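Hi R.,

Here's the chain you asked about this morning:
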Amino acid sequence: MNVAQTDVLKQIRDVIDGHYQNGAAPDRDEDNNVLGEWRIFNLSDAYEERPPLQYLISDVLYYPSLSIVYGGPGSLKSMLLTDLMACVVAGAVWLPSGAEPGKSFAAQKAAALWIDFDNGTRRTHEHFEAAGRAYSLPPDAPLHYVSMPRPWLDLTKSSMVEGLRKHLLRLGAKLLIIDNLGLVIGDADENSGEMAQVMGNLRWLCEQAECAVIIVHHQRKSNGAADSGIRKGDSLRGHSSIEASLDLALLVERKDGEDDITVYPTKVRGYRAFEFFGATFTYQHKEGTRDLQSVRFFSKQILTKAEREENELKAAILTEIMAKPGIEQKALVDAVRDSVAALTGKNPPGINKVRGTVTKMAAEGAIRSQGEKGKAIKYWLVS
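And the predicted structure, written out as tokens:
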């Protein structure tokens, strides 16, 4: 091999070495040939002490990680993430208690980057102005965003992913939000195995940039009755490789016209277990306009199905006792079962369940009972 050839090979190796983070050279075989992206570990690596997970949002979002937040149109998923991003930049409490107690989360202060191809530049400016003012962020706060009406980012191309990594490292960002997935996959079909490459590139990005990557995505269209009983995670639109690659998937649901939302973790990997939580969207308009002045989400208590059913049962018991003071237990149980069935349109609750709830309410002092041995127990409201 002549000197010129040796110089060319050295240049090639220098270029390859430059693709590796920390300047570490790639692994080579015994003949000094590059082993490509392969880096072989062994148990000595596994046994090394690793630092604890770093959480941007306590118990919810750590880094590096790859997550998706999805929901139907108008579910407020993008606004929720705008609030989350401003909260991280401020290092404030995410979803603080509002009118009702609920779940709140501490945030680690960090720089963040948002890439938007969905909302348009004017609306994106408006959203971040409103969120920034709600958290009293100064103009030079490390809240960065890109907003383009024409999608140009293609996550199937490694060169673009590498460019994005460099921007994240330059900004020192620990949070990246991309809105939305369907607009950054180039010519790939989101319902095909081509998404494995996109998600693989995103996994590489979050690891190499040491940040939390959140992708905004959509819920697949409902099939009505055919969807009843399906796992909530099955409503994530697109190929199965999307969900398979995630550390966290959050489904945002909102009833039409309401400012309350419920957030369901439909996939959790490597996280401390947490249940669904609720939030209330609050906002103010600039005087005389429809432009947003400030936006903020606050926590809201969301009851489980069992808790809602128990409350319905207790309300029915109190109603029947109010209508018939001194009502005997058997008559009370029968009346409550009939009223709950009529109210819900479902089968009546079991006799033992109603009787047990009545007994519990009496023991807790919520209602007053009286009865002698061998005689029927009667119930009154507490004066």
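The chain has three domains: 3-35, 54-302, 306-381.

Let me know if you need anything else.
M.
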